[in-house]
Design goal:
The chain is an alpha/beta fold. The chain has 25 helices and 18 strands. The chain is elongated. It binds ligand C2E and calcium ion (2 copies). Ligand C2E is lined by residues 405, 421-422, 433-435, 438, 451, 454, 478-480, 540-541, 564, 598-600, 617-619, 624.
């Protein structure tokens, strides 16, 4: 009987046991990779146990019946057949994960395993790999080497597959697979070359350790500040859930106030606040997973609607009170967003996008708010998405139009200006509200291109119809914060005007209250440049926000537009009427011309006229019109004004 050195086997067994112990003791990951890793380790452990038993039988240390010996060896061979297959399959799950599809357990690659398993079972009668004589003595079968060949096939397949899909695997996973193959290869070769050494088991033990340290360790996915799962794991977890069509519901918390806390108390206190909140979230979640998606968003996912409801209520209740951290009481309002049936989203990015959308709807209001995704919010989200995509096409192909709304002078009894307003029509969804597409364009940076395209059109329109300059005094155009912040914006505007050989004084730039307040330094610079060249400035949406008048009015405005919201409040409120009248008065005394925006009815017209407003813009006179219609509109009005003027003259003569 041969003497074997079993120390490697024992050592590997304890090695794997340790890996399993650590894996088990950590947060449980719920994904295909982790399940595969666990099966891999368990198979490895069992393999080592049977390796030890079988070696004991071979060396005569363990005395069992021939039937038991045969059974043990058969089982050992089955495990030996499973390990190379697992290696190949595991390597595939690593790459397929990225493609966000599952790896079917049964494929052509399983056929090799099945063939081998059949041979191992038939070995009981055929003795291909091993036999036992009647007195229970072991001997190798004629296909004994076939087992090495079989393992070699899977090793080769794994290597080829990993090289072909290097890009999907990524450098790190690819090098881990290479390391794994090298370790196992060397250990198998060692056992083959050195008679009494049993290093195959060592290969398994070392290989699993490498895997654990690099890929299988759940700690890799844990956020160090909060001790909850991180964004990477969230993505993998969601993809795996979506793939398996398993139900889940999300409660997300957006911590807007974190930035302020970091500023006031320092970032290390901010970290402790986060860690405290994460602890509470873990407590509320119970057995469910808690994730930190980014700097200021955490979430809990639940399996059932009942649990979702409980978590939602407890989270809301927690954030409605002041937080007590290290003796400090801090008010920490958050936006809580609930997405029931999150599993109905198709992709992780779609789910995150929807979450972003919902959270953007419940902007910080100084108190904890809750918004829950429903059918309507989902439709709106899709609509926004669709418009977002279409906007890129629209910019590329310049599908925007400019409409013009006339502005009426009460004193001159005629239209004296136009406001240029952008229009966009979606082929299937119809006209898109400019407020919406401008907001999206501001977010994704397309506003600069849109602004430039539109202003170019305005200049061309005026150039092609010089009569405009005889009919009206100026054309007003709108600006967004991103445009004002753009280096050289003033120069670009002037270049556009000059390219069409038009006088700068024929244009008036509208700046909103918010721009004037928040971006004052840049606005001052650009305003000076434009005003010097002759472009006038108009303050838009006055009264819609909480602008600091002192800052705003330091800019050289000639006109101030009173926001429609001020007019809306007038019916039924004497207070609002007094307010409107007083503002007009104050602005007038300060030397500004005023425009009443959004005048829709005769009554509104009468009121604002009485209060001394200079100009009127609103549906009462006309909605914004396309180029040809506005030209027609102005011509007709000019003709009518001339008629009236003639009539008046005649009347004067008659008198
Ligand atoms: P805004 O600058 O305050 O433009 C006035 C808005 O009020 C226009 O909406 C106009 O159609 C609407 N309006 C005018 N009279 C009435 C009325 O009597 N009743 C009501 N209910 N509304 C009236 P529009 O065209 O939908 O534009 C919305 C906003 O989109 C604009 O508000 C402006 O902030 C922005 N916008 C439009 N075009 C552009 C652009 O080319 N560039 C930039 N940066 N912003 C633009
Ligand atoms: Ca405007
Ligand atoms: Ca306005």
């Amino acid at each position: 009987m041969m003497e074997y050195n079993m120390s490697y086997l024992y050592a590997s067994f304890f090695y794997l046991l340790l890996v399993l112990y650590h894996f088990w003791g950590q947060k449980k990951l719920d994904d295909l990779k982790s399940r595969m890793f666990l099966s891999f380790v368990m198979t490895g452990l069992l393999d080592l146990v049977f390796d030890i038993i079988c070696t004991g039988i071979m060396s005569g240390g363990v005395n069992v019946s021939v039937w038991t010996a045969k059974m043990c060896f058969t089982f050992f061979y089955v495990l030996q057949a499973l390990i190379p297959f697992f290696l190949y399959y595991y390597a595939r799950t690593l790459r397929e994960d990225r493609e966000n599809r599952g790896v079917p357990l049964f494929g052509w690659y399983t056929a090799i395993l099945c063939g081998m398993l059949i041979l191992i079972v038939l070995n009981y009668w055929g003795g291909y790999f091993f036999t036992f004589n009647l007195s229970g003595v072991y001997s190798d079968g004629p296909l004994y080497m076939g087992m090495y060949l079989y393992a070699g096939v899977y090793v080769l397949l794994t290597a080829i597959d990993s090289i072909i899909h290097y890009r999907q695997l990524g450098k790190q996973k690819f090098s881990v697979i290479c390391e794994l193959l090298a370790i196992m290869g060397i250990c198998v070769a060692w056992q083959y070359a050195v008679d009494d050494s049993l290093t195959t088991g060592l290969g398994i033990g070392l290989g699993m350790t490498v895997l654990y340290l690099n890929i299988g360790n759940p700690n890799r996915y844990i956020d160090s500040t909060t001790d909850v799962f991180d964004n990477r794991y969230f993505r993998e977890w969601v993809q795996s859930r979506l793939r398996r069509e398993k139900e889940f519901h999300v409660v997300a918390v957006e911590m807007h106030r974190l930035k302020v806390i970091n500023k006031i108390f320092g970032s290390s206190f901010g970290d402790r606040v986060l860690s405290h909140i994460a602890g509470k979230m873990q407590e509320i979640s119970g057995n469910y997973q808690v994730f930190r998606l980014n700097g200021k968003r955490m979430m809990i996912v639940t399996d059932s609607l009942v649990e979702y409801d409980r978590v939602r209520k407890e989270v809301l209740q927690y954030f409605k009170q002041e937080l007590e951290i290290e003796g400090e009481k801090i008010s920490f309002p958050v936006s809580v967003c609930g997405i029931p049936h999150a599993c109905e989203r198709k992709e992780c990015d779609e789910l995150i996008g929807y979450m972003d959308y919902l959270i953007s709807l419940s902007a910080e209001k100084g108190r904890t708010t809750f918004i829950q995704g429903d059918w309507q919010t989902l439709q709106n989200f899709w609509y926004t998405k669709e418009i977002e995509q279409y906007l890129t096409i629209a910019v590329k192909n310049d599908l925007f139009e400019v409409y013009y709304q006339p502005i009426y002078s009460i004193k001159e009894k005629r239209f004296v200006a136009l406001e240029a307003l952008s229009r966009l029509r979606h082929p299937t969804l119809g006209p898109v509200s400019p407020e919406m597409f401008i907001q999206i364009a501001e977010k994704n940076g397309l506003i600069l291109q849109i602004g430039s395209l539109q202003f170019g059109k305005v200049c061309r329109f005026v150039k092609e119809h010089p009569e405009l300059m005889t009919m009206i005094r100026n054309v007003k155009f709108n600006t967004s914060p991103a445009e004002i912040l753009q280096e050289g914006y003033g120069r670009k505007v002037l270049e556009n005007i000059e390219a069409c050989h038009l006088p700068a004084s024929f244009f008036q730039m509208e700046i909103t209250e918010t721009i004037a307040t928040e971006y004052s330094e840049n606005v001052y610079r650009i305003a000076d440049e434009l005003v010097e060249a002759g472009v006038e400035l108009c303050l838009d949406d006055f009264g819609s926000g909480y602008a600091n008048l002192n800052t705003v009015l330091r800019l050289p405005f000639t006109e101030i537009k009173l926001d429609r919201s001020l007019l809306n409040g007038i019916p039924g409120s004497d207070h609002m009427a007094d307010f409107y009248r007083s503002i007009v008065n104050v602005l007038k005394n300060m030397g500004y011309k005023t425009v009443a925006e959004g005048v829709e009815t005769e009554n509104e017209l009468q009121l604002v006229s009485q209060w001394g407003v200079n100009y009127i813009q609103g549906y009462y006179f006309s909605k914004p019109l396309p180029e040809n219609e506005i030209l027609e509109f102005l011509r007709e009005n000019l003709a009518r004004a001339l008629e009236d003027w003639k009539d008046e003259k005649e009347n004067d003569c008659d008198l």
